[in-house]
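User: two proteins, same treatment. go.

Assistant:
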Amino acid sequence: MPVTTPEVAVLIGRFQPFHRGHATLLQKALETAPRVVIVLGSSFHARSAKNPFNWRERAAMIGATLPAAERERVSYVAVRDYYEDKRWARAVQNEVSKLHPDARRIALIGHFKDASSQYLNLFPQWQLVSSENAFEIDATRIRRILFEAEDIDVSLTVIAELVPLAVRQYLQAWSKLACFAPLVQEHQQLQKYKAAWSTAPYPPIFVTVDAVVRSAGHVLLVQRGGFPGKGLWAIPGGFVEQHERLLPAAMRELFEETGIAVLASSLNDAFIEAKAFDHPERSLRGRTITHAHYFDLKTEHLPAVQGADDAAVAVWVPIAQLAAMEESFFDDHFHILDQFLRLSED
């Protein structure tokens, strides 16, 4: 093997779903190095209109497009969204290193499409192999076609030129799963939501608050009663009203959604800190900046709670169980909990 030949080629993407543009990049990766690592971004999310396929389904989808000989050369790693570039890049590097600890010459395969491609600049230690995308395909458009046509066979016909045949066949089988209909409904609700704000003079930026409440080794969660994220676990919270400041807004939302049996003065004394979460892609509803408020009641008992308002259920969940629930959280709420409670391994 020539000295300049990379030992491993890395391809990073969300692949929601895997389309012909992605296939072009994957072939470039296979031509560049004998071993290929596909990094499946946005893993461990709950299913949503933006992330309808879990990481295992995406790996199966990609593998189905490859002949057996090439399939054996490809490995997959799943990486969550940390909403922090440095932390995310470090996680990607660590996962690749686990698979190929002895590799010294690593190539990063990529295509500079738009601002979303800036992640390619986060790996200066890897050799960047830029590949032109022969197919100007947008996965967002494919998802819209899947979720908006009344007949799935019509959708699959429309996207026939956009995805490999194996992916089209995979999507046909996947559409029979129980998760498909709720995703269609969520997509429709989100489109209505965005349409309601489409006449605003400027793209709206929403301000919300969340309340992370800890007590006796537990954290207080709610189960969402409506779309988006119906049935998912979330931190109690909501939109800031016109006359409110942030801390009182977080306390109001907490009381409205959980009816937590503590005095407002006790809750105020339990307030530890607040952090802003402002990643542009953190919410399906659009640009939403939330201010999460962390309260530690420091009690040995769990105050009574009952779901109300937007919350179907309110429950105390042991902190030790939160990591196992990661794929059941709404938006970036697991990430918010991780920031205060340090749930993930790194």
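Protein 2:
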Amino acid sequence: MAKWLAKVKDSFTKIPKNIRVLAFGWLVWSPVQAMAGPYTQLYVSKLGASPEDISLVQSATQIANSFSRLLGGFLSDKYGRKKILWIGTLLVAGTYLLMAIAPDWQTYAISNVLNGISLFYQPALEGIQADSVPISLRGRMNAILSLVPGLASSLSPLGGAYLVNIFGIVEGVRIIFFLSFLTGIITALSRLFWIEETITTKDTINASGNFLFSYIDALRKISHETYLLMTTDILLNLVGAMTFLGNYYMYYYLEVDKNGLAILATVGSVVNLLLLLPVGKIVDTRGRNFSITLGFLLGTLSQVIFVLAPPSSWLTLPLLLLSTTIGSVAGVFYGLAYSSLRADLVPKEYRGRVYALWGLFPSFTWSLGALIGGWMYNNLGPTSPFVSSLLLRLLLSPLLLFWYRQLTYKVDEVIRSFEGS
């Protein structure tokens, strides 16, 4: 037992300090946030929002976040990551308090948009994560960063189900948002006291640097592969956002009850959790192309099964469970490969600005996709956005699979050289 504990301690100390601090924050915060996941759309609908209103709220939040990330990315590269990170985290925590006391969906919408603006710190967070890990370990470190909150969050939807069953959807979700406020404060303080700055003075933008020209300079320095990955992100955000009303659809059309939604979310979390470490190693050893391609194909299969699930049938929940399981496997492969590849392609001193730009156009297309999906749900029938999204994904598949091979080739060559040395 003593040897095992010593081995665990040794493995823990080998993890970069910043990764440990980020993991701690997500360990504290993510489980509480995950409790609300299956019920947020239902909460907003109980406050008086229609399906189109729900899509509009999320679209406005995405657009607000896109623009705020531009400022956050600039500040992150100019003044360093740490200050931007902890201040932004504190502001996000405050927005959860506003969501908890919202009397109607319009007030919730304002709170949610403020949440999106407060996430201006995301380029700083993504920059710290990428800066702190070498290329040969990114898949595994990204897996660890997902594993820790996943361990705590895997059963969170069941806790959410307990609260909404006891207090009702509105009061139950209010309690969860208040708890998100408290744990967000703890996360902000941990980042203030323990995060170490990763960008040095020589790496930062010159103090007289112009906001616009600093972004133009960053765009000039990034590779063709980076632009290609951005383009795939834009397309998938547009198509994927059309299915934004998934929980609403399952609850109101497929007639999956509150406990069923919690079970689906829990299964997805557990599958994700079990696969993170082995898939992280695969991403670092088999290369990015294998993992991102497999993730995309499995994600498409998951969506096919979801669309085939009938309403109010004995087959409904089993098919949704199968779709969720396959989708979770897909998400682990695609997500770890994607986040690792993005860090591989962007030079350290430009990550704040490039990551900010990276979120801009995909956010606009996501917002457009969500609005289209909400309109289709209301006007063409509940199944229309999900079927349309699937058909578009199938049409794009040959192009995207070709691009994945192109944009991963150089990185996978570097990874193979590490394996051979």
